[in-house]
Amino acid sequence: MLSLSASKNVRLSTASRGVTMQNQQPVSSALNRLIIGADRAFDLHGSLQSTSRTLSNLDFEHQHEVQRVERGRTDPALKRQIIDNLKRRHRERRQPYVALVAELQSHLSLTVSDELQAIG
User: Fold this and answer.
1) At what angle do helices 76-119 and 27-36 cross, to 10 degrees?
2) How far, in Å, CA of 21 to CA of 24, rounded?
3) What Rg value do the Cα atoms of the chain yield, rounded?
4) Which secondary structure element, helix H or strand E, spans residue 10, and what is its range?
5) Are 14 and 107 in contact (CB under 8 A)?
6) pLDDT for 38
7) Beta bridge partners of 43
8) Distance (Å, whole) CA 11 – CA 77
9) Contact 51, 73 (CB under 8 A)
10) What is the pLDDT along the chain (120 residues), one digit of tens a residue?
11) Which one, of 116, 93, 92, lies nearest residue 1 by Cα?
12) How far is Cα 92 from Cα 86, in angstroms, rounded to an integer?
């Protein structure tokens, strides 16, 4: 029987992807520091869950802001412009987290694949 517990805590390196988080650090650079520079094993599952939660929070916040504008008494043309700006800002805020989720999932699948090969 395969145990995936080892895949939860691993040390890996990442390739540079040039994506930037809100604090303006490239995703892979920040991820490298977390994975390689950690004193203990890096928790891929925990990071993936945390990043997914952040995405959910961003989506919820965005939806709330859009609904608030839609319910307001603002001129319809101005409403459309405000909503378009909210959507643009939402995409910009969300994109680095989506990239990080993809990178974490990639590392996770590599880890599971390595474990499967080791088991044999």
Assistant:
1) 40
2) 5
3) 19
4) strand 9-10
5) yes
6) 57
7) 9
8) 52
9) no
10) 333 333 333 333 333 334 444 444 556 666 666 666 656 667 888 999 999 999 999 999 999 999 999 999 999 999 999 999 999 999 999 999 999 999 999 888 887 776 677 786
11) 116
12) 10
Backbone torsions φ then ψ of 38, nearest 5 degrees: -75, 145
The position carrying tokens 């101005």 is: 78
Distance CA 9, CA 42 (A): 5
pTM for the full predicted model: 0.65
Residue 25 burial (C-beta neighbours within 10 Å; 0-12, 13-18, 19+): middle
For the chain, where are the alpha helices, taking DSSP H only?
Answer: 5-8, 27-36, 44-71, 76-119
If 0-12 CB within 10 Å is exposed, 13-18 middle and 19+ buried, where does residue 91 land?
Answer: exposed
Question: In angstroms, rounded to a whole number, what is the distance separating the alpha carbons of residues 34 and 40?
Answer: 10
Tokens (6 digits) for 37: 């520079």
Residue whose entry in the numeric block shows the structure tokens 């990239």: 99
